[in-house]
């Protein structure tokens, strides 16, 4: 029997996607990354079909002898990597991690102060997202454009005045570390708690190029596990506060997850081990690349923000493309040339510009994993210029992008898959 037409179509679309995004594009989305081949090999496992409600060794289902061991390893490895006492690895995304922590720290009707939306607060921190769904009211911390950061003096006054239940720090456009210590001191003085969401910078913290907010006074941290930290898509919560950890764990299950996508766990363990070995080298290269990319774009004539502050201390940079037709237009043109970015609101954009904002957000972490160095990002800046400034046909530039990308197909900062392992005859490799 020949395959149903829809089936052929599904397979074909998947193959084309894999080839396109994995080998033919320059990916500059700041919230994405790729796992190592070894982590991928441990991701496609039988664990994806299993349930393990509860904590390791206290499950509601049998069959978890090995998943328990792996989950405990993830907790231990991540504790070591982040130098914290307690790690809760079960949230299936950063948003779910936030939901569990926000729910523990606040009741419906309570107030929370959040990093300003203009400064890149994630939708889950806002009334439009998780905070809103929990009925917790948001008030934005003041932002200081000159420092591209939260305005500490005004923030402290606001905390004293509002006396919120908790304050969130961290952002999705994260160029410079937020002032955790100053905010934590003021927040603790009114009996409230600080959550620092490090979704974007977890890999930089693991690589010791970004401050760990738990060491600077935050009560608890939430994160995704797939942005600068190159693990499987998922979430994580960490803290040094035992009571908080226990309360949060009881909230994660049964309130916010039932199964926790167990196949993430071996891949998380592999990624943690790789980060223990190669994380510092990787994170240092990410930061050097981001700076070099910003400088290269500026010398190609782009308006890269925060120039007076050295552009960025993270993996992310922001470019004002108002003069080039706006974020929506430029991002689409670049996509047609196989350069993948996202449009982004800039601090001075009104919220209604969300569909056509003035900026582009760019991140270097994934291409750094594929081996790009400072000089390679100069080439990327030139390719972007051809499309966005010189008005070259994106389809023509796309050919150059595909050619250029051929030098960067192997994931670095990783161990090789040992050859002695047998592959199951039913294990399906990625369709290409
Ligand atoms: C990406 C992000 C999240 C949540 O991400 P998930 O997609 O739910 O894993 C949360 N907070 C910040 C600051 C983020 O950037």
Task: Walk me through this protein's architecture.
This protein is an alpha/beta fold and 432 residues long. The protein has a domain at 40-271: Type I PLP-dependent aspartate aminotransferase-like (Major domain) (Aspartate Aminotransferase, domain 2, 3-Layer(aba) Sandwich), CATH 3.40.640.10. Helices cover 41% and strands 13% of the residues. The protein has 14 helices and 17 strands. The chain has helices spanning 5-24, 37-41, 65-82, 94-105, 130-133, 152-162, 180-189, 202-206, 242-256, 264-299, 327-336, 365-369, 374-388, 394-405, and strands at residues 26-27, 54-55, 58-59, 86-88, 111-114, 137-140, 143-144, 149-150, 166-169, 193-197, 220-224, 235-239, 303-304, 316-320, 339-340, 342-344, 359-363. The strands form five sheets. Strands 4-12-11-10-9-5-6 form a seven-stranded mixed β-sheet, sandwiched between helices. It has a four-stranded antiparallel β-sheet with strand order 13-14-17-16, with helices on one face. A two-stranded parallel sheet has the order 1-15. Strand 7 (143-144) and strand 8 (149-150) form a beta hairpin. The relative contact order is 0.15. It binds pyridoxal-5'-phosphate. Residues 31, 93-95, 98, 122, 124, 170-172, 197, 199-200, 224, 235 line the site of pyridoxal-5'-phosphate.
């Amino acid at each position: 029997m020949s395959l149903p037409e829809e089936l052929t179509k599904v397979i074909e679309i998947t193959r084309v996607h894999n080839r396109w995004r994995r080998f033919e594009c320059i990916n500059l989305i700041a919230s994405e990354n790729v796992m190592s081949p070894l982590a991928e090999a441990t991701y496609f496992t039988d664990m994806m079909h299993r349930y393990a409600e509860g904590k390791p060794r206290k499950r509601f289902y049998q069959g978890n002898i090995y998943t328990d061991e792996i989950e405990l390893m993830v907790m231990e490895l991540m504790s070591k990597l982040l130098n914290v006492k307690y790690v809760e690895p079960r949230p299936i995304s950063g948003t779910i991690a936030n939901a569990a922590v926000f729910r523990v720290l606040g009741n419906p009707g309570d107030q929370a102060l959040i990093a300003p939306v203009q400064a890149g607060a994630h939708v889950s921190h806002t009334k439009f997202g998780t905070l809103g769904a929990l009925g917790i009211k948001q008030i934005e911390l003041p932002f200081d454009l000159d420092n591209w950061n939260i305005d500490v003096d005004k923030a402290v006054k606001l905390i004293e005045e509002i006396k919120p239940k908790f304050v969130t720090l961290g952002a999705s456009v994260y160029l410079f570390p937020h002032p955790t210590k100053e905010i934590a001191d003021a927040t603790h003085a009114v009996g409230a708690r600080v959550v620092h969401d490090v979704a974007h910078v977890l890999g930089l913290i693991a690589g010791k190029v970004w401050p760990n907010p738990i060491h600077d006074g935050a009560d608890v941290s939430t994160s995704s596990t797939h942005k600068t930290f190159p693990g499987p898509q998922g979430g994580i919560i960490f803290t040094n506060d035992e009571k908080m950890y226990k309360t949060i764990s009881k909230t994660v299950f049964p309130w916010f997850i039932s199964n926790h996508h167990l196949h993430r766990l071996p891949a998380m363990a592999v990624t943690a081990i790789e980060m223990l070995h190669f994380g510092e080298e990787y994170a240092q290269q990410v930061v050097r690349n981001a700076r070099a990319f910003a400088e290269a774009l500026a010398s190609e004539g782009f308006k890269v923000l925060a120039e007076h502050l050295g552009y960025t201390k993270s993996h992310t940079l922001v470019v004002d493309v108002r003069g080039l037709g706006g974020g929506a237009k430029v991002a689409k043109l670049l996509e047609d040339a196989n350069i993948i970015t996202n449009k982004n609101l800039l601090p001075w954009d009104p919220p209604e510009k969300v569909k056509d904002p003035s900026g582009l957000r760019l991140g270097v972490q994934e291409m750094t994993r594929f081996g790009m160095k400072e000089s390679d990002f100069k080439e990327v800046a030139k390719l972007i210029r051809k499309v966005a400034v010189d008005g070259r046909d994106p389809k023509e530039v796309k050919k150059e992008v595909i050619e250029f990308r051929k030098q960067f197909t192997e994931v670095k900062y990783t161990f090789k898959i040992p050859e002695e392992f047998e592959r199951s005859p039913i294990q399906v490799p990625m369709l290409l």
